[in-house]
TrEMBL record:
Membership in a protein family: Belongs to the GMC oxidoreductase family.
Organism lineage: Eukaryota, Fungi, Dikarya, Basidiomycota, Agaricomycotina
Organism: Dendrothele bispora (strain CBS 962.96)
PANTHER family, sorted: GLUCOSE-METHANOL-CHOLINE GMC OXIDOREDUCTASE, GLUCOSE-METHANOL-CHOLINE OXIDOREDUCTASE N-TERMINAL DOMAIN-CONTAINING PROTEIN
UniProt-recorded name of the protein: Alcohol oxidase
Domain Glucose-methanol-choline oxidoreductase C-terminal: 450-563
Length: 565
C-alpha cells in the first residue's frame, strides 16, 4: 500500500510486476494527464498547474530573508510534482551520490551501484540530426533503451532558441567544459539537458505517464485518486520494536472516512508529505506531537528535521533576440504558436529543455578566497550543527557529518554549489504589468548544495491543516557567499563573448547593485524556493539522527518504509 508524490507510482509499478502482490496507491489529487497545461511542454505553470494541482506550501517568516513568507510548490496530482515541474532530466555529480554511501557506510548507495537503476528506469531517445545541430549530446553507456524494462521516456524537444547556443559558447569561454552528456555523473560542464518527455509526440512524461497509464489494467494495481490520508493505524504492541502498521485511514472523494487494512506480511510505503503523515500517526518528536494533540506511538525526534531546499535567484537583461516573452506580449502570436503545436508539434510550445551547467567553486572564487570561506565554516562546524538540529543532539552529529563531508568535497572541487541556466524569457518576481514590455534573457542561479537545514512539523491533529514549514534558508553563511557569487557569474555570462551581442542592458538586480553587500541585500528580498525540498526523513544511522536505514525502513517500525524524493 502506498500514497505518493513522484516515487510512489514508481515503487507501486515495480511491486505490481509480481502478480502475487496486491498494490494500492492512495493519491490526494486527481489524475490530470488529460489537461493540456500538463501534457503541452510549453504550458509549464499555466492553467491549474500552480493552483489546484499544487499544494503551494507556505513557509514561516524566514529570519534571514527579511522575514518574508515564501511558497514551496509541490504537485497535488497523480504523478506528484512530475505533473507540474520543468521536466529537465540530468543527473548529479558522482561524488554527491557517493556521499550517501559514506554517511551510511553502505556502498549500495553510490554512482556505480545506482547507475543500473537509472538506466532501467528510462527509455532514452537519442538526439536526431536537428537536435544534435542545436547542441544535444549523449553517451550511450549511461542511458537505458529497453522498452520492456524502461518506463520514463526521455529525450530532446523540437524547438531550440538561438541564445542557448550563444550561452553555452559563452560559458565555455569562461572556463566551463562542454558536456558530452549531462546525465553522465560529471555535470561540472555546460550542455543541453535531456527532458522527461515523449519525443514521439512531444509531450510531458510524468510519473503517471511512465508508471500508471499503460499499466492501469493490471488486476493487482489499484489507484484511488482524491483520497486524503489521515493516519496510519497500528496493532497493539508490547515493545516498541514490534510496532506494526495494520491499516490506513483516509478520506475519499465523497468526503467519507475509510479504512484499508494491511494484509499479513504487507507493508505501508509512504511517499507524500511523509513527516506530516507520520506525525499524525503518532511517530515523531513526542513534544511536538503532544502540542498538536496527537498521542505519541514512537518517539523519533528527527522526523521532519534536516529539511534542505534549493533556493534560486536571477539576473535578467533586455535583449534584441526572440524569446518566450512574445507569447505574453502578443496573444495572437501565442494562439498561433499553440495551434502550431497541435498541428505538427513544432514552435515555441514544443520547447522545454534548457541549456544549463553546474558551477564548481573554482568557477566563482579564487583559491585563497575560497580557502578562507572553508576555514571559517570548519571552525564553526559544531556551532552550525547544533543550531540547525533544533535541539536534537543525535541529529547535530548527523548534520556535522554532512557538513564535514560537504566541505571536504568543496575543497577538492567535487561539491558543486550552483546550477546556472539560461531562460529565454523574463524570470523573476516583477509582474508582467510592472516591468517594461520587452523581451528578456535570464540567467537563473540556483543554490545547488545548501548547508542550511530546516524543518517541517504539524501544528494540529487536523489532516487538512497544512504543516508548518521552516526551511531556514540562508542560515549558513557559505550559502550566502555562494549565492552572491552566482549573481556575479550570471552578470558576467550575460555580458561576455557571444551573449554580449544580444545584451541590451540589465533589468534586475539593476546596475545600482554594485558591491557584494548590495547584491546580498537585494537577494534577501527576492530569492525564492526552487521547490526541490529533500531530507526530512533522513537516511542516516540512528546514532546520527537518522529516521530510515539504507533499505528505507523507518527505525522502530516493523513494516513501514519511505520512498520520498
Amino acid at each position: 500500500m502506498l500514497w505518493h508524490i513522484t516515487a510512489g507510482l514508481t515503487v507501486a509499478n515495480r511491486l505490481s510486476e509480481d502478480g502475487d502482490k496486491q498494490v494500492l496507491v492512495l493519491e490526494a489529487g486527481p489524475n490530470a494527464e488529460n489537461l493540456q497545461e500538463v501534457f503541452v511542454l510549453g504550458l509549464i505553470g499555466a492553467g491549474q498547474a500552480l493552483t489546484t494541482l499544487n499544494w503551494a506550501y507556505t513557509t514561516v517568516p524566514q529570519t534571514h530573508l527579511n522575514g518574508r513568507v515564501l511558497t514551496i510548490n509541490a504537485g497535488k496530482a497523480l504523478g506528484g510534482s512530475t505533473v507540474i515541474n520543468s521536466m529537465i532530466f540530468p543527473r548529479a555529480e558522482k561524488a554527491q551520490y557517493g556521499a550517501w554511501g559514506i554517511l551510511n557506510n553502505d556502498s549500495s548507495w553510490s554512482w556505480n551501484a545506482l547507475l543500473p537503476y537509472f538506466k532501467k528506469s528510462e527509455i532514452f531517445t537519442p538526439p536526431n540530426k536537428f537536435q544534435q545541430a542545436n547542441g544535444a549530446r549523449f553517451e550511450r553507456d549511461v542511458h537505458g533503451f529497453n522498452e520492456e524494462q524502461g518506463r520514463v521516456k526521455v529525450g530532446f524537444p523540437n524547438f531550440f532558441f538561438q541564445q542557448w547556443s550563444l550561452w553555452r559558447q559563452t560559458a565555455m569561454h569562461l572556463g566551463f567544459p562542454a558536456s558530452p552528456d549531462l546525465g553522465n555523473g560529471s555535470p561540472h560542464a555546460v550542455g543541453v539537458a535531456p527532458a522527461s518527455i515523449d519525443p514521439a509526440n512531444n509531450t510531458r512524461c510524468s510519473a503517471a505517464c511512465a508508471y500508471y497509464t499503460d499499466f492501469a489494467d493490471r488486476p493487482n494495481f489499484t489507484v484511488l485518486t482524491n483520497a486524503t490520508v489521515i493516519r496510519i493505524l497500528w496493532t497493539e504492541q508490547g515493545r516498541e520494536s514490534e510496532i506494526t502498521a495494520s491499516g490506513v485511514e483516509y478520506i475519499n472523494a465523497n468526503n467519507e472516512t475509510q479504512v484499508v487494512n494491511v494484509s499479513h506480511g504487507g507493508e505501508v510505503i509512504v511517499s507524500a508529505g511523509t513527516p506530516k503523515i507520520l506525525e499524525l500517526s503518532g511517530v515523531g518528536n513526542s513534544s511536538i506531537l503532544q502540542s498538536a494533540g496527537v498521542k505519541p506511538i514512537l518517539d523519533l525526534p528527527s522526523v521532519g528535521e534536516n529539511f534542505a531546499d534549493h533556493v534560486n535567484s536571477w539576473v535578467n537583461a533586455f535583449t534584441n533576440s526572440i524569446t518566450n516573452d512574445l507569447l505574453l506580449l502578443d496573444p495572437t502570436f501565442a494562439e498561433q504558436q499553440l495551434n502550431l503545436w497541435f498541428e505538427n508539434r513544432t514552435g515555441f510550445y514544443s520547447s522545454v529543455s534548457r541549456s544549463l551547467g553546474i558551477a564548481a567553486p573554482s568557477d566563482i572564487f579564487n583559491k585563497s578566497e575560497f580557502n578562507g570561506l572553508l576555514e571559517e565554516s570548519e571552525e564553526k562546524l559544531n556551532y552550525f550543527a547544533a543550531l540547525l538540529s533544533n535541539g536534537n543532539p543525535l541529529l547535530a552529529r548527523g548534520i556535522q557529518a554532512q557538513h564535514r563531508l560537504a566541505l571536504d568535497l568543496y575543497r577538492s572541487n567535487n561539491n558543486l554549489p550552483l546550477e546556472m541556466s539560461l531562460r529565454p524569457s523574463f524570470f523573476g518576481k516583477t509582474s508582467f504589468e510592472d516591468r517594461p514590455a520587452r523581451t528578456y534573457n535570464t540567467i537563473v542561479s540556483a543554490l545547488y548544495a545548501p548547508l542550511s537545514r530546516g524543518r517541517t512539523h504539524i501544528s494540529s491533529s487536523d489532516p487538512f491543516v497544512p504543516p508548518m514549514v521552516d526551511p531556514a534558508y540562508w542560515t549558513h553563511p557559505l550559502d550566502v557567499a555562494f549565492h552572491v557569487a552566482g549573481i556575479k557569474l550570471a552578470r558576467k555570462m550575460l555580458t561576455t563573448g557571444p551573449m554580449a551581442s544580444i545584451y541590451e542592458g540589465e533589468f534586475e538586480p539593476g546596475l545600482d547593485k554594485v558591491t557584494d553587500e548590495d547584491i546580498e541585500n537585494w537577494l534577501r528580498g527576492v530569492v525564492q524556493s526552487y521547490t526541490h525540498e529533500v531530507g526530512t526523513m533522513a537516511m542516516l544511522p540512528q546514532g546520527l539522527g537518522g529516521v530510515v536505514d539504507t533499505k528505507l525502513r523507518i527505525y522502530g517500525l516493523k513494516n513501514v518504509r519511505v520512498a520520498e524524493n
